[in-house]
Amino acid sequence: MLWWETWPAAYPPIAAATGTGYAAGLDDFGAFMTTFDEREQGFERKFALDQELEFKATARRNRLLGEWAAGLMGLATVEEYARAVVKSDFEQPGDEDVFRKVFEDLKGSGVSATEGEVRMKMAELLAQAREQIKAGE
Asked: Which Pfam families does the protein's record reference (predicted)?
């Protein structure tokens, strides 16, 4: 008899033992993979949380940018314009749609702002929004 022919009988798999395996919520590898699975799930939860926080920070940055631009343009409806800027972010992935809207609106209203100034303000407000989100504001 060859050694591998006796393997299953001599050493039953972990999943076949009472209280382990699928009955105990473990996968095919038993308790050895549980730690890795938990770690993987932890990383996935952290990634999801980070993405959610970044989404909130970007939306807040867009609102703050809209309020800043509305102030420069002298608009009476600051909140309405800020909402329009936030909505403009959903047109395309990335920040270019927000930049384009704010920059063109500033140019159209006669405010002399360069591309660099608007982009710097966007970066500054994103950092500010991230800090506000972390602080729980």
From this structure: ATPaseInh_sub_z
